[in-house]
Every structure is written in structure tokens, then in C-alpha cells.
Amino acid sequence: MPFGLTISVLLHLSVLAWALINIHSTPPFKMPDPEPVEVALISPDDLVRLRQGSRDAKQLEACNIDGKPERDQERKHGEAR
User: Fold this and answer.
1) Residue ranges making up the domain that contains 56
2) For the chain, where are the alpha helices, taking DSSP H only?
3) Which residues sit opposite 69 in a β-bridge?
4) Does the predicted TM-score (pTM) go above 0.85?
5) Which 8-state DSSP code applies to residue 69?
6) What values do phi and psi take at 63, rounded to 5?
7) What is the DSSP letter of 68?
8) Which residues have a Cβ under 8 Å from the Cβ of 73 and sit 6 or more positions away?
9) In angstroms, rounded to a whole number, what is the distance separating the alpha carbons of residues 14 and 21?
10) Residue 61 lies in a domain
11) Domain tally for the chain?
12) Does residue 58 sit within a domain?
């Protein structure tokens, strides 16, 4: 009986030691670099002019996947109805 207990304890300790060594020897996980996001900063004056429809306002429109401004496509859908 004590012989089996000794063998069991030694095997369990060797498995735990092997797991501990493998955990410490693995390289740390690296997170992928986030993709940069393009941001356009505008002043409050530019925002007011954009909302009022001033002719000298900057052209700021969101683009969809095709690269065409969303407002143009809304107009096309509105005319087709």
C-alpha cells in the first residue's frame, strides 16, 4: 500500500511540475494591432455652416462601401418612388 501511494504522489508531482514549467515557458499572447480610424475634426463654425447649407462650407458627407456619398443615393431612391 505505501509503495502505490509513493508512486502516485511522485507521478502527480511530476505532472504538476511539467505543467508549471510549460506555463512559464510559453510566450505571452500578443493582441493584434487595431486598425487606424480616419477622423475629420471640424470647428463649431464649420458645423453651423454645414447645417445651414452655406456655399463655402466644407464638403463633409459619409460615404458608403461604393465610395459614393449617401445623400446622392437617397435622392436617387426618392426620385424613383
Assistant:
1) 2-26+38-80
2) 2-25, 44-52, 70-80
3) 63
4) no
5) B
6) -110, 145
7) S
8) 64
9) 11
10) yes
11) 1
12) yes
Q: What is the pLDDT of residues 72-81, one digit of tens each?
A: 445 555 554 4
- What cell numbers appear for 71 in the block? 445623400
53: left (phi over 0), alpha (psi -120 to 50) or beta: left
% of the chain exceeding 70 in pLDDT: 64
Reduced to 3 states (helix: H, G, I; strand: E, B; else coil), residue 63 is: strand
C-alpha span between 19 and 28 (Å, rounded): 16
Q: What does the alpha-carbon distance between residue 70 and residue 6 come to, in Å, rounded to a whole number?
A: 75
53 in a domain, yes or no? yes
Distance, in Å, from the CA atom of 61 to the CA atom of 51, rounded to the nearest integer, reads: 12
What lies within 8 Å, CB to CB, of 63 at 6+ separation is 69, 70
